[in-house]
Every structure is written in C-alpha cells, then in structure tokens.
Amino acid sequence: MFNQKLDSILSNYSSKKSEIQKKYADYNDKVKSEKENRDKGFLLSGTKKELESLKSEIDIKLNTIQSEIKDKTKSGIDNPDIEKLVASQEYNSALMILMKKPTDIDRILKQAYDDNRLLFADAISKEVLGSNEYSEGIKYSVRYRMNEFEERTGLKSLKDERLSLRYITSQIDEHISRAESNPSEFEKKIDIYSKGMEAYNKAESINKL
C-alpha cells in the first residue's frame, strides 16, 4: 500500500512537470524559463510535503508493528524488575545446560518455545549462534526453531513488513534530501524512475496477454 502511494506521488510529479513544460512550450525562452521555474518550484514544494506526509503515515504504522512485535516477544511478566531477575535466571539456566554439552539442543529449544519460556529460548539461541563450538547443523536447527516460532506467532510477517517499510522510508528520505539540496538532480532521478515504471507496466501488460 505505502509503496503504491510512493509510486503515485512520484508519477504525479513527473506527469505534472510534463504538463508545465507543454503549457509554456510556445512562450519565448525568457518568459518560458521564468514561468516553468516558478511552477516547478510550487510542484516540488507540494511533492515534498506529500513525501513528508507519507513518511509520517509509515512512522505511525512502524510504531504499531513494533508494539505488536514487543507484545509477541515479551515474557508475560509485567514488573520490569522481576522480569530482569527472571531473565538473569533463565540466562544462567541456559549457560548451565550448554556447559554440559547437550546433544539434544533442538529438543530443548522446541520445548522452551512450547512452554513459552521465551527468555530461556532467546538465551540458548544467542549463545549457540554466537559460538564457534557448535556445528552448522546445530546452528541450522536453532535457526529453524526460531523461524518456526516466528511463523507460528506471526512474528515473521511483522518483521518482514517492518523491513519493507523501513526500506520505503529510506527511499523517501533520499527523495526529500535530494529535493531540498539539488532540485535538478531530483527531477532527473524522477524522470529515470518514471521511465522505468512505464517500461515495467508495459512488460506486465504484455505478460497478462
């Protein structure tokens, strides 16, 4: 949805810029340049505001996603001090188990997720993945259990959406920065972008035939 909104803003800028150029095509060079620059300035300012507004929308959505991720990964302990204490205990429990060099880490981790011992599972996962003492096979099984948990709880889709929105935000930041510091470069980039989108849409239309 947000990606489509960004595409729409940039496409509208390109279309309106073309309209401005056509509007003053028959004017003499001096008047044409003055009027085009004036109208393009208004257009650029309006486009920049649209980009900033879209970024604000995305920021609100990102905050919502972050809250949902936090809810799905929290320990269930409301008191922060008690949660820190339990986290410390679970971490120590994980270390003690790993010190015994267990051969059934996969089963231990699966059971931890099933019992909703997320602090313990997190400690086990970080220690195993961050150590050189474990084989790639064991690390693969740890990643598998982590992914399985994230798929089951909806965490994976939330994290994927967060990553996608952060990428769109970075694109918007680039466009805004370019519009502020180098309007002519912004215009060139949007022209290239619009031509790319036009070619993509034509290819899509042909594929649907």
Q: What features would you highlight for this structure?
A:
209 residues; single chain; 8 helices
Brief characterization of the structure:
The protein is mainly alpha-helical and 209 residues long. The chain has helices at 2-23, 29-73, 80-99, 105-114, 118-129, 136-153, 155-181, 183-207.
Topology:
Blueprint: H1 2-23, H2 29-73, H3 80-99, H4 105-114, H5 118-129, H6 136-153, H7 155-181, H8 183-207
Strand content: under 5%
- Indicate the mean pLDDT: 89
Provide the gyration radius in Å.
26 Å
What level of helicity do the residues show?
over 70%
The parts where pLDDT drops under 50 for at least 5 residues are none
| Total DSSP E strands | 0
Quaternary structure state of the chains depicted: single chain
Number of helices: 8
* Straight-line distance between termini: 25 Å
Largest sheet: none
- The 3D shape can be described as elongated
Tally of structural domains: 1
| H-E string | HHHHHHHH
* Category by helix and strand content: mainly alpha
